[in-house]
Each structure stands twice: as structure tokens, then as C-alpha cells.
Amino acid sequence: MAGKEVDTVKHRMYQACCDIYEDKGNVILKMEMPGVTKENLDIKIDNNILMIHGRKERTDADKTHYLLREIKDGDYYHEYSVDDTIDKNKIDATLDKGVVTLTLSIKESEKPRKITVVSG
């Protein structure tokens, strides 16, 4: 094994692990993207498709002679179809400790509402 680098692939694409749930009138999407920085994160919505792309770059790849490389670098990419119940102008994103959290607001007109019953 000595003298030969195990990992010869330069560019990889990964599907990030994701949880999606509803909370307080919002759809919450959480994705694990370890090693991705805010500068290497691109989130956009186009034609009802939500696209999330993050890149983890190895900074020491040219300086180190690896005998084994198991820590992944490369791109994370995922896309989701977003229906018309989501307000596309109210999508917030945060990145904290390698977890991207998107908060997609459900349109007020689509949220459940209580109907008041009156006596007649």
C-alpha cells in the first residue's frame, strides 16, 4: 500500500441525508453536509424545483501523500419538487455545524383553519 494513493477519483457527487417534517405552519428540510461552508452552498428554486448544491473541498490534497483516504470530499446535490402550497418568496436557509436547514413557509390560504360554528 505504501507509495500508492488509494483514492484516485478527483470529483464525486453525493446525495445528502435529509429529514423533512412539518412544524408550526412550515415545512422544515434538514440536510447533513459535513465540511460544506456557506461560501460553497448554493440553494435556488426554479419552476417549482428546489435545488440544493454544496461543495466540500479538500484543502490539503496537494500537500499530503495519502496511504488511505476515507474522508469524503466532493459535491452534495439534491432537488425537490415544491408544490403550490409553499410560498416561494418565504424560504429561509441556515447552515450550522454541517447541517443545512431550510424553512419553507406554507401559504396562509393553505394552512388549516378553525371554522366557527354559530347558532341559528
What does this structure look like?
With 120 residues, this protein is mainly β. The chain is 0% helix and 47% strand.
The domain tally reads: 1
Summarize the main sheet. 4 strands, mixed
By DSSP, the count of extended strands is 8
Characterize the overall form.
elongated
| Percentage beta strand | over 45%
Spans of at least 5 consecutive residues with low confidence: 1-9
Report the mean per-residue pLDDT as an integer: 84
CATH secondary-structure class: Mainly Beta
What is the CATH topology classification name? Immunoglobulin-like
Distinct helical segment count: 0
**Radius of gyration based on Cα positions:** 20 Å
| SSE topology string | EEEEEEEE
**Quaternary organization:** single chain
Give descriptors for this structure.
single chain; 120 residues; mainly beta; Immunoglobulin-like; four-stranded mixed beta sheet; four-stranded antiparallel beta sheet; 47% strand
Topology at a glance:
Blueprint: E1 13-14, E2 18-23, E3 26-32, E4 41-46, E5 49-56, E6 74-81, E7 86-96, E8 99-106
Parallel strand pairs: 1-6
Antiparallel strand pairs: 2-3, 3-8, 4-5, 5-6, 7-8
What's the short story on this structure?
The chain contains no helices and 8 strands.
